[in-house]
Amino acid sequence: MGGRVTRVFRNFNVENRARREIGKEKPTPAPRHRTARLDTMADSPEIKEEVLRKDDRFLTLLKDVYVESRDPPVQVKDGGGEHLPSKQEEKRLTKLGHLEALDVKKVSKGKISLVEALTLLNNHKLQPQIWTAEKIAAEYSLELKDVNSLLEFFIPFTVMEFPKETKKAITSHKPKQLT
């Protein structure tokens, strides 16, 4: 209901208001900046004469200038299409176990592959006294602080088997039959 009321007031006397706006005189434009008036001054003969006149002093200075330019030697780009790295990174061969087909063969120093990460985490979990953070850092060319963070925040999954009694209890339960 509120929409009908507002529509009535909005549409009241629309034609008269529109005619009144159209009939108003146009506002006077703002004054132009004086640089815009240079176009009219360019038509004057004094300015044309000044522009076309040659200055002897500038001509003598221009004759004294000698410019010699040489193109830089052209470098031939080979069309191999590969971009060579700007800085050669040291690479190391990965220490792969039985998952050799799933992993990369070379890794930059200071980094490890996914299979290596899982392997070292599992080794540390099973034998923490042998696979210490220092030994892992030396073995995989990593920084000690990175290895400590890796061992602290990433833990591999463990597989747990339930006792047989629990399995029997679960399977002995008969499901309800729908009627």
Automatic annotation (TrEMBL):
GO terms for biological process: mitochondrial respiratory chain complex I assembly. Signal peptide: none annotated. InterPro entries: NDUFAF4 (IPR009622). Residues 19-42 are annotated as: Disordered. Pfam families: UPF0240. GO terms for cellular component: mitochondrion. Binds calmodulin. Interacts with NDUFAF3. Belongs to the NDUFAF4 family. This is NADH dehydrogenase [ubiquinone] 1 alpha subcomplex assembly factor 4.
